[in-house]
C-alpha cells in the first residue's frame, strides 16, 4: 500500500554512531521549519535510499525547496533532524565529495568562466583538477568551457549546475528541477544520467514539476503537500492507489451500457463513449459478444502519474487558476 509514513521521533544524537547508517542515504526524521507563524515543513520523515531514483513531488508552496535546503544545511530546522551519509551535511569535511547538489544553477559569478568556476570548487574540496574537464565533457560544455557564465543560456546554466553536482563523484546526488530550460535532447540526457547514477548504487533525489518526465525517471516517490508527507512509495503503487484505470468503450445505442451494468460494472458516459470500471477489457468484449452486440472501440486506459498526483494533491494546492472558459465568461 502507498501511505504517508507514520511520524517518528528525531534521534537526538549523531546518527553516524549507528552502524546501519553508514550507507549513502538521506535520512529525514520529523523535520520541521517555521517562518514566524507559517509552518513551511511540518514534521516530515522519509528516507532516500541508494540504488534508485527517488522523485520528490508537490504543488508550489508545498515545502519541497525548503526541505531540500535543510538537507543541504542551507536552512536550519526548527525541529527534527536530517542526515546525509550518516551525519549532518554541515559536518562533512569535503561536502562536494559526499553530496552533489543542484538547487540554484545560476548562483555563481557571471564574470567567471565555466572552467574557472569548477576549478575553484575543485580546489576548495581537494578534488583533482583533471576532474574539471571530465565533468565539462560529461555535460557537453567543452566548447564553451572558457566562456563567462553570465553569457550562458538557461539550459547551459543548468548543465553547469549538474557539472558542479557531479564534480566530486559523490555517492549522493540531489537535483532540484534539473531539466528546467533544457531542450528535448537535454531532458532525455538528464533522465538517462539519473538512472545511470542510481544503477551505480548512488542515492539520487530529484524534484520536478514535469510529471511525464518524472514518470520515466523515478522508481520511488515522496509526495509533499502543505508541508506534510502525503505519500512515500514506489511509482507503480502510487499510480495504482491514487488514480483508477478504466476501459474505454465506443458503441451505438445504450444496450452495451445496460449489459455491462447488469454484470456489476460501473459505467460512466463521457463525450459519446463509455468509461467502464470493475471489468477488464477482455471481460467487456466477451460480455458484449455473447449478446451479439458490436463495439467500435475497446481500449484499456491506464492512469498516469499526473492523474494520480492531481488526485492526491487536489486539497493541497495553494494557488488555483481559473480556466479559460470561466475567464471568457467573466469578461462578457
TrEMBL record:
Any one Pfam family here would be ABC_tran
GO MF terms listed in the record are:
ATP binding; ATP hydrolysis activity
Q: Which domain of life is it from?
A: Bacteria
Domain ABC transporter: from-to ranges = 26-251
Region spans: Disordered: 1-22
| Annotated SUPFAM superfamilies | P-loop containing nucleoside triphosphate hydrolases
Compositional bias annotation for Basic and acidic residues: 1-20
Keywords on record = ATP-binding, Nucleotide-binding, Transport
Name the family the entry cites.
Answer: Belongs to the ABC transporter superfamily.
**This protein's name:** ABC-2 type transport system ATP-binding protein
Biological source species: Blastococcus aggregatus
UniProt lineage? Bacteria, Bacillati, Actinomycetota, Actinomycetes, Geodermatophilales
